[in-house]
Amino acid sequence: MSNGVINVLLVGVGGQGTILAGRVLSLAALSLGGEVKVSDIHGMAQRGGSVVTQVRFGPRVYAPVMAPGTADFLVAFEKLEARRWLPYLKLDGWLIVNDQEMPPLPVLTGAGTYPEDLVGEMGRLVNNMLALDALELARRAGNVKSANMVLMGALARRLPISREAWEEALAVSVPGRFLEVNRKAFYLGWDQNG
Amino acid sequence: MRELLIGNHALARGAWEAGVRVAAAYPGTPSTEIIEALARYPEVYAEWAPNEKVALEVAIGAAIGGARSLAAMKHVGVNVAADPLMTLAYTGVNAGLVLVSADDPGLFSSQNEQDNRFYARLAQIPCLEPADSQEVKDMTMLAFSLSEEFDTPVMLRLTTRIAHSYSLVELGQRREVPLKDYVKQPAKYVMLPAFGKVRHRVVEERRLKLAAYAETTPLNRVEWADRRAGVITAGISYQYVKEALPGVSILKLGLTYPFPEKLIRDFVRAVETCYVVEELEPFLEDQIRALGLPVTGKELVPRVDELSSLIVARTVGARVAAVAPELVCPDLAAVALPAMTAAGNPAAGSTVLAPGEAEGVREQGTATAAAGEEVAAASGQGGAAAPAATLTGFPAAADLPGRPPLMCPGCPHRGVFYVLKKLGLVVAGDIGCYTLGATPPLQAMDTCICMGASLGVAMGLEKARGPEFARRVVAVIGDSTFLHSGMTGLLDMVYNGSNGTLIILDNGTTAMTGHQDHPGTGYTAAQRPAPKADLKQIARALGVQRVQVVDSYDLEAVEKAIREETAAAGPSVIIARRPCALLNKEKEAVYIVDKGNCLGCRYCLELGCPALSFKEQQAVIDPVQCNGCGLCTQICPGEAIRKAGEEDE
């Protein structure tokens, strides 16, 4: 929004690790010395429901939630959710989208259809988009569950936060035995160009 | 040291720093994390009580006994605890007692969105409303002193957006507050009529003293800016006002009951136009109007759902902009007041929206997400609903399939609801994960009123429609919920001659709120071993002769038990037992579909399992999501589903 606040919206599906990703981002953002506010919004379902984490940081942040059309970054862990939340992205904002398809219940039961070519459609709409196969990159890092850190890595290189701050945030948030895999995933994401 | 904390953790920290010794709660979103955090401090005794009434009663005992104490609950929990609360307001405390009411505007995970500030007014006790995590901590600490100074319980009212948002908090050290002496004072603590009458006068005197305190406390402060517009606000609404209307003067109330009459009069008179911005009910507004002061509030600001910076900009912002556009945040004005900014003429933007319109963003979003999933949308997607199109962002897509909440892969409740649907039974439901048994494709639940209500509702249905109807009715309730407030309902069924059937869905935890312990798990809030309440024995002790225990994963056994018990005379209980699928980290071998045998009948999809989908007229199981529960093998007529790795023959 105004006054140098950076708005990051993380959207995904319950079980994908969006909340942990939001934790890493918010801890890294603390290194900038200003205020950080984070709001986790999840529905009733622990697995398979929609999950949204809003992270706002800057010199002075009031509301913990942002208005539509004001997100500087939309990081989508699943592409249908990316399209659903696209109206939150500023016209010149960045869309980072995991090219993964997780059919929601209406699609599974045949009551709805999963839209085709979502990434293509969004690519035509959005000026700044990075679509990546975070699942595959996470697999390469050593654990499919580290896809959330692949996405954080892709976001990280576009934010004015130091590498050291990210490293520290990762070390604090991720249990020791998973740290190496997550660091690897983070840097695989970092290296994605778009 | 500053740390990022959610409001609930800031509250726990504040209570700890203030020397709290006893804390009790029943888990309920958005309040749950308070006790979880307090239970980690060795200086604090923190417990999961079976319900909120008991939690408050434990806190009352502790406070009378001289220890600072706290009871935490969600808004509907205060309904359960309202009975002791009203009398506690009369007795007062000895050491400080703080009652946390975590309200849920926007219904992220609740049955209604009541505004519990009215409880403070009903009980005539002070109500504090913090606006971020730092204020949560500070006000928690102050609440204990206020409680002792004025000899009153203090209500600390959070909302979901405060309870669950992270912001920076300055940490301090614990101040050990010595146990106060316990002095026997029957006239104060025994509220029989003669004593109660006397205490009611004390309550009134206290209210006047608190009102005088409200005039001078820094909890209520004026932030002077442009005086053409002033806003009176509290809690999270303050943040939305600061963001949307950076130029206006603000009276921020931290103590919202009783409120500072003089401060309010002076503020209203000092500004040209005064608005009241508050979430949900016109709690402040009505009281301010009762003083004869001209303010505008719910005429513009919606009375339902959460507020947001955008809604404040669209409603009050539109009015303010017509007079002084520079007082409104330009970025939000661009989104909220397009007519005005497009015309470049503030006057042309006198698009004062009706409250209904003002809710546009969330309402339209919910409608988009709902897309034919009415029940699912109604079951609490809350803020996770999709946004509407804006001028500065990208357009919304039409007809995206919604992502309604659903039972997890491997959820033990799924099979029970599948059987209930198959048998076509009337199901009186309750609050918990299993409320999702009401959503497609299972849709096997008829009612859900409040915690513990399933038994009473089933009983009422039976008494209204006769014992034959009772054969078609079951009540379902979780293990934690049964212990919360199901036992009394079961006792009623026994005592008043019910023929009904109760199914206790025993997954061994309080799953919905994130796996808290309860008297049936064998552990305390601090994870210490505890005597494990035996549901079977409880049912028997309450007088139920017919009690069966079945494995929730064994559909044949579940169906047999339900058929037997609904047919039987007298009350019966079926305990359908299987641990929550998320408790067991090691998953069983996943299942796969044998393409040759799949008939393409789609029966398996009736389970509503997120791991099961259909591609090219055949079932497919996602190996990452499959939890290995095997329910699908039991309902597949073609024997097409088998464990991965097992040979065909």
Backbone shape of chain B = globular
Number of strands of chain B: 23
Q: What integer is the average pLDDT of chain A? A: 93
Number of strands of chain A: 6
> Could you say what the CATH architecture of the largest domain in chain B is?
3-Layer(aba) Sandwich
Helix proportion range of chain A: 25-40%
**Cα separation of the termini of chain B:** 65 Å
Q: CATH-wise, what's the superfamily of the largest domain in chain B?
A: Thiamin diphosphate (ThDP)-binding fold, Pyr/PP domains
Uncertain segments of chain A are none
Strand order of the largest sheet of chain B: 3-2-4-5-7-6-12
CATH fold field value of chain A: Pyruvate-ferredoxin Oxidoreductase, domain 3
- Head-to-tail CA distance between termini of chain A: 24 Å
* SS-based class of chain B: alpha/beta
Total helical segments of chain A? 8
Give the chain pair forming the largest contact, with residue counts: A-B, 63 and 80 residues
Organism (chain A): Neomoorella glycerini
GO molecular function (chain A): oxidoreductase activity, acting on the aldehyde or oxo group of donors
Protein name (chain A): Pyruvate ferredoxin/flavodoxin oxidoreductase
Keywords (chain A): Oxidoreductase, Pyruvate
